[in-house]
Structure formats: structure tokens, C-alpha cells
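#lab-general

N.A. 3:47 PM
ok so I finally got the sequence cleaned up, no stray characters, all 229 residues accounted for. can someone with queue access submit it? mine expired

B.Y. 3:52 PM
send it over

N.A. 3:53 PM
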Amino acid sequence: MSYSTCVCLGAEGLVEAGEIGVATDWLELRIDLLPEDVRRDGARIAQWLAEVARVYPHVILTYKPGDADAHRIQLLGKLLAGGTYCLDIDHGERGEYQAQLFDLAARTETPVIHSYHFSQWDGNLSSLRDVIQSMQSRTPWYTKIVAPCGSAEDSLMLLSLYFEFRDVILIDSSRWGFRSRFLAPLLGAPFTYSYHDSPTGPYQAKAREMQPLLASYKDLERKTLDSPS
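B.Y. 4:20 PM
back already:
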């Protein structure tokens, strides 16, 4: 178990590493959520990445569809050529651009997080299993599933897939989402997503609150294991 959070940055801009103040190896930059003037300044982003990578070894670059696709591909190509980062590739990408992103990752030897965001989910685990198996056939570093659960029971069913698959990150985007985010690293995910100043996903916790919570759980677990009754 990792007991780690991944600090997500977006609308707040390029925050200096020393101001983030969370003890973790993971950081995600949501390029699509950056202010437009920052998003268009590739040299500034590259310089910032080089600086934060000294503190956070695993930096995930996420640039969701929305901007001109040619610009996204070009910017990501320059950034990945200039450093060792991770790339989140959304399954919802149009086929030609998804192929370009996987090709880019292969050429730069970039680890991939292949993500799938469901707009709705009926609680059928078979459909999720099929999607995960299909996505893992591309041998990404991690596979991420985000699905809105219709009940607390469905949320727990989603989390049960941690016991069937390795290298997955499972997120419930419904009102029970915080539970899935807190339990993720305790059930086998490499980390859980949390935010610095501005949420980048539904029902996220603030990183400065989530990481101490995970650390307290880890410490309590260690104490109970060291002192069996």
C-alpha cells in the first residue's frame, strides 16, 4: 500500500514546489485547466516542470480535449521531449489523436496512465471488467476508471475491482466519491488524487488535508500490528 496522494494543479496556475507543501512523490498538472496565457506558454511550463520534478519524481501531464488538438499534441511533444514525466491519455480521445498520443509516449518512453471517464454507470461490473481488460491490453503503466455510482453499494462494488486487477485507479465520481478517493491507496492504487487550491475532479479533498489523514491511518495501522491483542 502506498498511502500517497497525488497533488493536482490546474486553475491556480504554476505553483512553486516549495509552496505545495505536501510530502508525496506524485504531482499532476492539468494543462487544460491552466489560465489561457499560461497554457499557451510552453517554455514557461517546461521550466516549471524541470523545477518541480526535483521535488516530485512522478509528474503526470494531463491535457484533456478541448483546445485545438494540433496545439495539444505539439505542446505535449515538446514537454515530454524535455523531461521524464507521465502522460494521462483519455480513452475518450478521438481515435487519430489517441493514436498520436500513444505514439508520442512510445517515442519518448513515457509511462502512460490510460483513463476512462464514464458519463453513467448502471452498477454492472462486467462492463467495467471488459473496459479494463481492453485498456490493459495496451500495457499502460496504470489504468484509471472514473464512474458515477448510483448508490453506496455500487461504490463499494467498484472498489472490489482492486481485488481482480492490478495497476488500477478506481474513482467514484458520485456523492460517495470521497470514500473511493480515501480508500484507493489503501486497496492497491499507487495514489489518490487531491487538489492544491482548486478541485480538478468531483469530491476531491485538499492535498494538505488528505495526506496527513493517510499518514495517520498508516501510523495507526502500524501501531495495531505491532501490538496485537
